[in-house]
Amino acid sequence: MTDPRRLYLASTGQNRGKTTTSLGLIAAFAARGLRTGFMKPVGQRYLVVDGTRADEDAILMQAAFELPDRLNDMSPVTLPRHFTTDFVMGRVRTDLAAAVRRSAARVGKRRQVLVIEGTGHAGVGAVVGLSNARVAALLEAPVIIVSEGGVGRPIDEIVLNRALFEREGVRVLGAVVNKVDIALHPDLPTILRRGLAAHGIELLGAIPYSELLANPSLELLVTHLDGELLAGEATPNRTIGQVAVGAMLAEHAVPVLRDRALLITPGDREDLIRAVLDAHLVAGPRPRVAGLVLTGGFRPAPAVLHLLRRANLFSFLVETDTYHAAQAINAILVKTHASDTAKIETIIRLVGEALDVDALLATIAE
Predict the structure, then answer these.
(1) What is the C-alpha to C-alpha distance for residues 32 and 24, in angstroms, rounded to an integer?
(2) Same domain, 283 and 163
(3) pLDDT value of position 341
(4) Which of 70, 125, 249, 256 could form a Cys-Cys staple with 130, CB 3.0–4.6 A?
(5) pLDDT single digits (tens) 149-167
(6) Do 26 and 136 reside in the same domain of the chain?
(7) What is the per-residue pLDDT for 149?
(8) Which domain holds residue 267?
């Protein structure tokens, strides 16, 4: 049986849209009747599933597409704490490159296409001998470089990353730019295409900005923050429109309590909590807020907690102070989960519309 066509998705940095592009392409390939596999050779953010350490994106793809492969093949190398130090000091004896090649062979078996997702920019992983550029070369996979919206920064970053792949002898097919605000700037795809073409790089697609994809869900907060859910539900398809810090008088908070606003405030600020409740419950054209993150470990008074529960308003209590809670929420990576059905459907549609999948398939077959 012939080897599958391989496609390596790299990016210019973290959270640029590799996983979004992977999801959309796998769905598009499957829709064309192609047996498609997925692997993430080097993972930095991982979970432990049934005793197996695996990258979050491998877990997502396995669940979203019901892939039969073992997680330790889909995610052969993960980097737990101190791993890089141990590697540099010679305490890691495993041949990591060989492990990646063996896993790719197993995942690619009986597959027509193998989508390989990198980690961060082209040089990430170099410390353990597995930079994205090196892995793409090991697996003989042509590369698509994914960046995100703008003009100058994505072009600069794509050109820089292309250089490292080419140094490893890897063919760069072109670039995908994610989160392009086409509604506000309809000429951006044309500008990006012309700017990249000046460097001999083809723009393969511009994925439009989507608020649904750009904002985290309530479920994501609960899974990434240590705390206690006091009221409401951590709904995966309920996204946060904006985040505000409640350090003002209650009457001054009212203007920020717009559609899907999440307010971070100490748990003993009863005035602000009641303002959020009013914004959530009021009838008429005012949209409902997303909920509250209550800080400092201060539980609301019993009467207020009763109102929160009766209103079924998302209220999550954390021990950290407001400043550090806001930092943690800001740092939460906007990850897609298999339960985020609305997000996945949107991703599949946007990627399918933005990329010429048939032309891409023809290119990787060359």
Answers:
(1) 13
(2) no
(3) 83
(4) 125
(5) 888 999 999 999 999 999 9
(6) yes
(7) 85
(8) 216-331
